[in-house]
Structure formats: structure tokens, C-alpha cells
Amino acid sequence: MKIIIVFLFFAALPFCLFAQQKLITKNATVSFYSFTPVENIEAKNNKLISVWDTATSHIEFSVLIKGFEFEKALMQEHFNEDYLESDKYPKAIFKGSIVGAHKIYLTVAGSYTTAVTGALTLHGITKQITAPAIIIVKNKAISATATFNILLADYAIKVPSLVADNISKNILIKIVVPSYQPFATK
Amino acid sequence: MKKIGFYITFTVFFLVGHAQDLLKGVEDSLPATEKVKAAFKSTRVINAHSIEMVARHNLDFRIMHRFGFISDGIKQLYGLDQASMRISFDYGITDNFTVGFGRSTFRKELDGFVKKRFLQQSKGLHAMPFSLVIAAGAVIYTEESFATIKPNTADRTAYYIQLLIGRKCNSRFSFQFSPILVHTNMPLNAADDQKIFGWGGGGRYKFSRRMAFTFDYHHPVGKLDSIYTSPLSMGVDIETGGHVFQLQFSNATGMNERAYLTQTTGRFFKGNIRFGFNLSRMFKTGKRKAA
């Protein structure tokens, strides 16, 4: 009898754990900026998905390239057609973990300066990146921001020489997660 | 005890397995229907309207040139001594409604048109296999007439309506059918039909990220003087940021619908080919509405 209870306990354990330890958001924002003396370009996508497993400190992000919105419609078309080739590579995905996660107490209000490190897959190419991040716990709500730079050359995003002065080789990326929600298991 | 061990192992595996792919099953709530964009690089394939529209509050400034026949030889520098041009402004009132007007040197014609997209190709949940666009316009020639009875404004006017049905098959290949009806109130050659129907179409094949082969062809149906032929154009689109350069070989002189359908004279396969180019520059006006 005892053994059966122990069995059940272990069998149920993973499900209980995940119900409580995974955090999710589907409406985080990712924006990027290209600054040059000629022109500043920015685009925004507020359909960034993120899942954070607080037990293992693993964190993943996924976003559809076609969801980026530019001020100029033509620029958006070129971004999809010529630069990111979104038909071929529809998503950008990050899989990594939070550095020093054991120092973050999600039940204690505060602002935690940390970093996220892992693999960013963009335009079919995967590279290791590390991004400084801030996690804010306030009134039991968890929000987060991260900022990092990527080089277009690292992801084989080619800029024709004619517009080389208009597009920065170094792109600033900002991630804003307004609030992580507990993962609702079905 | 062994069994407990098994369960612990199972639990650990479950943890590890989950951690590896957190996103699995999460991403399905994304927009299911997605519009297919950029079937052509420009709002004209070469001569004919394409299924592409000018984006809302954008202004497409176009300069189109057709030189003389290459078959005229070195005396005319292979046609480069003569040039016919059309200058036009197309404006996107909404993403699906464009208005435009143009001026051609050929017969000093003014033309204006409205273009509406009724269906846009999309994929996903409510997929639409093709785009459907209708363009309609009027053309007035303003060059001096030496006829004994001077033509009035109505006599100088022609109208057209064109149906465009097209599909972007994949990121490289797109095609469209573009049947057209042109009504000329007073054809230059009095024996010609007032109503000329044209069947035809066009396509593009993108061979690099910024370059594509294009062609368009129309065959006029109706009574036209035997000197008039079917306009056929083949070209290359080169896109550079806000500009699209369209370089082409065509037998048509005129660049509006009346002119290219009812007044093309060269025989393409007999060397009556003109070099030409279209230059399109897109300007953005006003703020884009946040979607």
C-alpha cells in the first residue's frame, strides 16, 4: 500500500512541478534598431513568445519574422523578401538559460540584474549569444527586459553596397516582457 | 524498491525532456491566415498593371522610357537617339485602393486610373489561392490634330478596364492573367474597331534576392490596322532599397493601356525591339497606421 502511494507521488510529481514552475508569455515585445548617420531604422513585434522553466532556469523565445512592423511598408517588404527571407526562415528562436538563476527569488520583490546566455537561431544560422537582462518582481508580477547587439554578418544577412550606409552592421535588439504568467496546463 | 528507482528515473527524464523544448505546443496560437505579399516587385509588370498595389499613403513616382527600334542600326545608335517617355504618380489611398495619373510623350497623352484589390492571395486557415484586382482608367491625347474636323475632348478620349488575376506560386515565381478591354471613342484609323479586347498576362521569376526576370504579353482581338502587333516585353527588375529599376526589351512605344494595346507597331521577332527602362521611386507620406 505504502509503495503504491509512493508510486503515485512520483508519477504525479512531474505534472505538479510543471504546473507551477513554468512561466509563459505570448505578448512580449522585441524591437530592433539600426542607427546610421544617414537613417535610423526600427521595427517592432509584440507577438514574442517566451517560456521560462524556473526549476531548471531554462528559457526560450520564439518570434515570427513576418510579424515585425516597420514605419515604411516597403521596408517591411524588403526585410521579409530580401534580408531575412521569411518564407524560408519564418522564425527566430532563442534557447538558453538564465545565468545565476539561484540568486533570483521570484517570491521576493526586487530588481535582479542578470544575464541570459544561449543559442539564437536567425536566418537559418545559430550563434551563441549572451545578453544582460533585468528581471523585476513586483506585487508577485514578474517582468523582464534584455538588450543585446548582433552583427548582420554573423547571420549571413547581406546588405547590398548601394544601401550599405543606410543599414548598420550592428543591430541593437531590445526584449521587453511585460509580465510572465504561470503556465496553464491543459 | 526497483520500481521506485524506475519512477525516479522517469521523473528525471521528464524534467530533462521538458527543459529541452519548452516551446513545444505553445506556438500554435499564432495568426492562422497570412497574406501573401510581393508577388511582383512593382505595381507594373512592365507595361501592364501588376496585382501589386501601392501601400497606404505611399507615392510611387515612375519614369518610363522606351527608345527606338534596335533594328534601326548604328545610324540611330540602335534606337537610343529616339525616346518616348511616360511620367506618372500613383498614390495608395488604402492598401487596397490606388489612384494614379500619367503623362506620355507619345501623342501627348494624359491618363488617369483607379485600381482596386478585391481579393488578396493568402495562406493558412482561410487560404485564398489568388489575388484579384481591377484597374480602370481613361486616356486623352492632347497633341494637335490636323484633321479637317477638329476632334473634341470626347473624341480624343479612350477608356480601359483590366482584370488582373494572379498568384505568387513560390518566393521566386509569380504569374498573372490580365485581360483588358479598351474603348477608343475615335480611333486614329477610322476603320479600326472602337472596342479592342486584349488577352494576355505576365510573370516574373526571381533569380536572386533583388533581381527578377519579367515578361508581359497582350494579344489584341478586334479589327485593327495590319501594322499593329501584339505588345511583348521581357525585362529584368533590379531592386535597390526604395527604387525599382525595370530594364526591358519591348516592341511597344506607348506605355499606357490604350497605346500599348492598340498602337504597338514593331514585330518583336523581326528585331523591332526597343530598349527601355522604368524607374520607380517610392515615397512615404504621413504616418503609417499602427496595425
Brief account:
The complex is a heterodimer of chains A (186) and B (291). Chain A is α+β, with helices and mostly antiparallel strands.
What labels would you give this structure?
heterodimer; A: 186 residues; alpha+beta; Lipocalin; 8-stranded antiparallel beta barrel; 9 strands; 17% helix; B: 291 residues; mainly beta; Porin; 13-stranded antiparallel beta sheet; two-stranded antiparallel sheet
**Reported CATH architecture of chain A:** Beta Barrel
Across the major sheet of chain A, the strand order is 1-2-3-5-6-7-8-9
Large-scale geometry of chain A = elongated
Order of helices and strands of chain A: HEEEEHEEEEE
- CATH superfamily of chain A, called what? Lipid/polyisoprenoid-binding, YceI-like
Radius of gyration of chain B, whole Å = 25 Å
Average pLDDT metric of chain B: 88
Looking at this structure, what is the CATH superfamily of chain B? monomeric porin ompg
Question: How many beta-strand segments of chain B?
Answer: 15
Portion in beta strands of chain B: over 45%
Written as H for each helix and E for each strand, in order along the chain, the element string of chain B is: HEEEEEEEEEEEEEEHE
- Which pair of protein chains has the largest interface, and what are the residue counts? A-B, 45 and 39 residues
